[in-house]
């Protein structure tokens, strides 16, 4: 059997062994001969102080990967955090209102930003075997944890490792800087709390800010750690909900090969996105900015997370001018600066961390601490230093350390006063804590162990001397109502010191009247603006779809709103209407004038020759025909629609009936001249009136039935034209309409046939011939009308109908009455009975001569052997 020993196996073995050691009770120890010890060498604390109760602290004072200027800077910043914990405990110990006589101590370790170091220090706290406080190997001394609670760590990755171990023992952990949203899961991290907001809130705030400024095309970089990966995942989810597209999302870590960092920098340089969201911790961000500084990219609008957006060390990178991001609110801790500066060489020698700080700050060596370096002579002035340790103008994270320590210390004293010292009781009390610190800040946690998310919007602005400074330009408070969390207090200075908000979009916004069409294979923020189709609109920017206008509406030219369709009908002010009206009135006026002429000469032979009563009735009906065309002009209404068709049908039947009566009179008059004929007896004036009345009554009956069953009513025709409405008179019943026209056509055809048969009869003044011409014109007009009516669009349909009415009416009045009026007015000598009789006698003789003419053809054939003879004989008598 072969065993494979891996680092994971060793870690699990060490963890189980530690649990075993921690779980031993004095009863299980046979005697003091049993030795309990850690498997590895114990780690000494960087700062410590004895007390009745010890509060643990773990801070990432060093980068375990580097020992350069960056490490020096990090050390001084984190050392300030550690000493802030010292200051808080001393401040509480000095209070007389909190259990006098009880002293709190501390034990602070350096995790060096390494998981292994933080876990090692955690086990020393948890199993009670810290050699600094437990100088014997007796098991009885390791029955309880060395600390009831601890503060730390400064990174999410190390805090996660610590929280997994401390949760097993129920030891509370309150972090001042671990923002990973994953730590809010109480099933995995039941003993973890923090005084800094979760990245869930920061990610949501960043996404809303990006959306607020109209940036839909951004780049994203993150640390390849729990902090960066979880934080960016929360941000990308929130960004997707806000409709923000990410051109790229790159990750790196400072220990990865340099080629990875160079690749990330090149992606940023080639990017078309002008906005970059950087969820990066300070150490990784420094690497990235240094790499970009070698070949600076085009101006970028940086959006930073809270770890680096308030880090003073980055103010030397001028290419980040205009950067914005959410940071922990700045605060004031009275007395802290004096405490930090109250440090002497003698005090520094008591702590390895303070010794390193003093020597690195003044470039000298304290007595007995190192060899080969200039010795410190005591003239060093710590107040003259300008570094993160002495800079208390931006107390942001430092205040969170203060609040975390304050919450733990107060609860330790409270538990001691009320109960026995049991860590689980400390945890339960911490979850319900609601206290106010000495400097006026409230400390409380929600059910996930997180505080209320409150941020300042930090903007990197250029000062007059060209250097950068942090300026608070807004605030974010998650406890406010939704939509009101974000507020602005000052103007923002953007990249390149611009005052206008920079644009960062993959595609420009689609204006109203267009819709977005996503480009194939690209994010949804990359699209083409497609004009809305005919009949559709979009009334807002970046519309995804175009909306079809209601049936009676049509888009404007920009296609961003629906306007009522113009209603088209043959209105009175239309040029065509004016022309048709003029012809209509002219025709009616001519009919009246002809009637006046006939009335003035009503006793003249030419008026009396063919039933003057029918002539006057015909002129009256023609006048109505001319005037009924006016009912077709104007806005259609119920009464006008019913009137125009019925008036047209009845007046035209009346007109044709009169013409038909006159034609029959001509035929009857000729037959009456034959010997023994009494035709006029059967078609005298009474019969003529009755026939006209009967023909007209039939049309009136058809119209009544039509109006009763389905009358013509106003109709909005939406089908013929898309962009306008044709307001017309619907036929109602098409059968009724064509019945009216059919009856008119039947009478007109009958009249035409009879007039054609009577065209050569010896009537008065060739009246039958003129009736034939008028009927020929009438029939031609209405036969042509049918296809023209069907194919004419809109108001021209009505115009065609009016034209047909006027044309047929003018044809009748000109062909029938013009010759007679010409004789009455210009040839009065022909308007005499003698002339009429002579004309009639002449026509009669000519007809008789034609009837008595004949042709006689006689054909004789004789047959001879060699010839054939044919004779034609014609004779006329």
UniProtKB/TrEMBL annotation:
Family under the similarity heading: Belongs to the G-protein coupled receptor 3 family.
Cellular component GO terms held in the UniProt record: plasma membrane
Bilayer topology: Multi-pass membrane protein
Protein name as it appears in the record: G-protein coupled receptors family 3 profile domain-containing protein
Domain (G-protein coupled receptors family 3 profile) ranges: 576-840
Any Pfam family the entry gives: 7tm_3
Compartments where found: Cell membrane
Signal peptide (residue range): 1-29
Alphabetized CDD domains for the sequence: 7tmC_V2R_pheromone
SUPFAM superfamilies registered for this protein in UniProt: Periplasmic binding protein-like I
Keywords: Cell membrane, G-protein coupled receptor, Glycoprotein, Membrane, Receptor, Signal, Transducer, Transmembrane, Transmembrane helix
GO molecular function: G protein-coupled receptor activity
Residue ranges of the TM segments: 47-65, 400-419, 576-599, 614-634, 646-670, 690-709, 735-758, 770-790, 802-826
């Amino acid at each position: 059997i072969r065993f494979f020993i891996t680092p994971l196996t060793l870690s699990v073995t060490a963890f189980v062994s530690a649990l075993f050691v921690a779980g031993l009770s004095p009863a299980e120890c046979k005697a003091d001969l049993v030795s309990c010890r850690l498997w590895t060498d114990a780690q000494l604390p960087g700062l410590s102080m004895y007390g009745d109760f010890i509060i643990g602290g773990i801070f990432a004072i060093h980068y375990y990967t580097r020992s350069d200027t960056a490490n020096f800077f990090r050390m001084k910043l984190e050392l300030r955090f550690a000493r802030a914990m010292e200051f808080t405990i001393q401040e509480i110990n000095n209070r007389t209102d909190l259990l006098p006589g009880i002293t709190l101590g501390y034990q602070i370790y350096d995790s060096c930003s390494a998981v292994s170091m933080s876990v090692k220090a955690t086990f020393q706290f948890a199993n009670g075997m810290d050699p600094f406080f437990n100088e014997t190997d007796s098991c009885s001394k390791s029955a309880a944890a060395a600390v009831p609670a601890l503060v730390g760590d400064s990174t999410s990755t190390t805090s996660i490792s610590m929280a997994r171990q401390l949760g097993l023992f129920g030891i509370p952990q309150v972090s001042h800087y671990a923002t990973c949203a994953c730590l809010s899961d109480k099933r995995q991290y039941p003993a973890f709390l923090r005084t800094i907001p979760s990245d869930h809130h920061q990610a949501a705030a960043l996404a809303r800010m990006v959306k607020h400024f109209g940036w839909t095309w951004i780049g994203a970089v993150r640390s390849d750690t729990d902090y960066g990966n979880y934080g960016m995942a929360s941000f990308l989810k929130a960004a997707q909900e806000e409709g923000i597209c990410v051109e790229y999302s790159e990750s790196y870590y400072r220990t990865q090969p340099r080629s990875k960092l160079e690749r990330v920098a090149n992606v940023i340089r080639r990017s078309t996105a002008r906005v970059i969201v950087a969820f990066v911790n300070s150490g990784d961000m420094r690497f990235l900015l240094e790499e970009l500084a070698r070949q600076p990219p085009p101006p970028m609008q940086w959006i930073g997370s809270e770890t680096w957006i308030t880090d003073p060390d980055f103010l030397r990178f001028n290419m980040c001018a205009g950067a914005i991001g959410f940071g922990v609110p700045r605060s004031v801790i009275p007395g802290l600066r004096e405490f930090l500066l109250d440090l002497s060489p003698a005090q520094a020698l008591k702590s390895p961390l303070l010794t390193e700080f003093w020597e690195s700050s003044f470039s000298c060596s304290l007595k007995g601490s190192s060899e080969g370096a200039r010795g410190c002579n005591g003239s060093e002035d710590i107040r003259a230093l300008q570094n993160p340790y002495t800079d208390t103008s931006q107390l942001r994270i430092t205040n969170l350390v203060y609040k975390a320590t304050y919450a733990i210390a107060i609860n330790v004293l409270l538990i001691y006063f009320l109960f026995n010292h049991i860590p689980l009781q400390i945890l339960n009390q911490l979850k319900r804590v609601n206290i106010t610190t000495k400097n006026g800040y409230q400390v409380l946690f929600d059910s996930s162990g997180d505080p209320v998310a409150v941020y300042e919007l930090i903007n990197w602005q250029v000062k007059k001397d060209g250097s950068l400074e942090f300026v608070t330009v807004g605030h974010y408070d998650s406890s406010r109502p939704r939509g009101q969390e974000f507020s602005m207090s000052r103007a923002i200075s953007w990249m390149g010191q611009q005052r206008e908000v920079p644009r960062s979009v993959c595609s420009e916004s689609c204006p109203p009247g267009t819709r977005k069409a996503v480009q194939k294979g690209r994010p949804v923020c990359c699209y083409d603006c497609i004009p809305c189709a005919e009949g559709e609109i979009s009334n807002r920017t970046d519309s995804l779809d175009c909306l079809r206008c209601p049936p009676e509406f049509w888009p404007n030219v920009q296609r961003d709103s629906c306007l009522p369709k113009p209603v088209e009908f043959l209105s009175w002010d239309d040029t065509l209407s004016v022309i048709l009206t003029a012809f209509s009135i002219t025709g009616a006026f001519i009919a009246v004038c002809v009637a006046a002429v006939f009335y003035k000469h009503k006793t003249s032979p030419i008026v009396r020759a063919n039933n003057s009563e029918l002539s006057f009735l015909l002129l009256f009906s023609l006048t109505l025909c001319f005037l009924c065309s006016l009912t077709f002009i104007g806005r259609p209404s119920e009464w006008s629609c019913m009137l125009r068709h019925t008036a047209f049908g009845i007046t035209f039947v009346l007109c044709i009936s009169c013409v038909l009566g006159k034609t029959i009179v001509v035929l009857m008059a000729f037959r009456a001249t034959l010997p023994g004929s009494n035709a006029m007896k059967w078609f005298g004036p009474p019969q003529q009136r009755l026939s006209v009345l009967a023909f007209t009554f039939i049309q009136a009956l058809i119209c009544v039935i039509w109006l009763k069953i389905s009358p013509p009513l106003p109709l909005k025709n939406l089908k013929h034209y898309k962009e306008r409405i044709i307001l017309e008179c619907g036929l109602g019943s098409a059968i009724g309409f064509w019945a009216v026209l059919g009856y008119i056509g039947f009478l007109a055809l009958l009249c035409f046939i009879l007039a054609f048969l009577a065209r050569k009869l010896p009537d008065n003044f060739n009246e039958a011939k003129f009736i034939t011409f008028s009927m020929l014109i009438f029939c031609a007009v209405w036969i042509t009308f049918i296809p023209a009516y069907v194919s004419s669009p809109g108001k021209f349909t009505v115009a065609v109908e009016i034209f047909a009415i006027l044309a047929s009416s003018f044809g009748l009045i000109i062909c029938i009455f013009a010759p007679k009026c010409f004789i009455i007015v210009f040839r009065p000598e022909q308007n005499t009975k003698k002339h009429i009789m002579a004309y009639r006698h002449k026509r009669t003789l000519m007809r008789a001569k034609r009837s008595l003419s004949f042709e006689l053809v006689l054909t004789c054939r004789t047959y001879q052997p060699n010839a054939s003879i044919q004779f034609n004989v014609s004779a006329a008598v």
